[in-house]
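User: Hi! I'm working on a homework problem where we have to compare a predicted structure to a textbook description. Could you give me the structure for the chain below?
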Amino acid sequence: MCRKKSLYSTFVLAIFTCLFLGNSSLFVNTSYAEQYKLIPSVIHIHTTIGNGENTPEEIVELARKSGIKVVIFTEHDTMKWTYGVPPLRTIIQKVVDQNSIQKYGAENYINTIEELNKKYPDMVLLHGAESIPFYYWKGSYFKKNLALVRGNEHILVLGLETPSDYEILPSVGNGFPLVFNIESIFKLWPVCFFIFGWVLISLGKSTLSTKNKDSGSKEPGKVLGIVCFFVGTIFMVNNFPFKSPLFDQYHGDQGVWPYQYLIDHADNHGALTFWAHPEVEKTMEQEDINIISSSYEEDLLNTFDYTGIAVFSEGMRGVGPPGGIWDKLLLQYCAGMRQRPVWAIGEVDYKGHGYDIAETQTVFLLKEKSYENIMYALATGKMYATMGDANKLTLNSFVVEDTSNGKLAFMGDDIELTGKPRIRIVVTVDKTSKSSAYNKRGFKIDLIRNGSVIKTFEADDSIDIAYDDDYYNPDEKVYYRLAVDTSYLFRGIVSNPVFVTFKEEEK
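Assistant: Happy to help. Predicted structure tokens:
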């Protein structure tokens, strides 16, 4: 009913605008309706398979009741934390292994989601992973200052298809590939002890026992041989297979390389990667171990070829606002410093605990509601993020138009213009809910070009805008994006960009 009223009000507004302001705005209101359907989704969902409170089916029921059509599950790939006591780090260990895809079984995980897809054909359910590529230990357990660092730096991996795709995801908990390097040579020292001990035991004598030859005592040599053999055996088991992982938790901070390695691995397997909650900060103590979680938005600038970032909810202090990290990334793409643009999504990071599963949404622009179209939308920026009260707003249209031929570019598109661009925006308000904040106050729409707000539109109801930007610079690539009602940290709409390349008009 809400959807019908929203569409009806949009239609009436279009006719009114057409009659009084000309016929161009009518085309705006129908631009999405003619080519795309707006499909609300929730991304980054945890269940009892991982560290969530609800079963996967309970999640589907909650989503359906909230009007959500697409659910993207992202259980942790692994929740395995290991601290080995030197020098026998692989033998003497403290291991914490919590619920995860690895523990549940990747095949079981995939089958669980696929069975729900069959049971709920009106929904589209996707399985994915929240990967924890890296963490490292700082301090000492024995000195009571042991700390786990960077364990909160996560990447969502979407589009994995087979159990083996999940099983080979590189991470500290799941295992990075092993390499033979200089450190590996030093790991071979137990072999010498093993051989030396075996020789002493076999011969029944050693250099140290020659002094006792007259007395016939061979015990010192045998004892030394047994000791060497035992030490060699223990450390051979500890050091086997005498290779070193590309990254581990015992050599301090490794920079962004573990994360870039995961991004490249996922890319090579046809999967998409999104940085999760880049601004989360939390420090806590658990079992005499300090867990230090710091924001990591700067790492977004130092990694490449990932698909996107989550701007809601932990991404609107320094990443999502105008001129923030995301705009720097988009400017790098326009300048040719990045091969791909970076898209924005909204993530729920839902575990239960009484929170609204639909508090943060990603609204897709889809031709048809299907797995393939959802993955295409994620890969090409055909979506916008919304959170909080802004769920009562609908971004019905955001396009850039070539006024010379009527061609439109949608979110994620790139259009070439030989003149100044016309930006078309339609936002409608759902006032069917008496609790809607927009019944009491208006909202603002910031139009952003290349990281700067070039125009702010104010509205207290549904609004239809056709704005001609007085900007034209041949051979330059720019982008436009929207920030709607984002004056408060945990609400608003953030659109993905439309890219414009200005060209000289052919004579």
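For your comparison, note the following. The radius of gyration is 29 Å. Confidence is low (pLDDT under 50) at residues 1-30. Good luck with the assignment!
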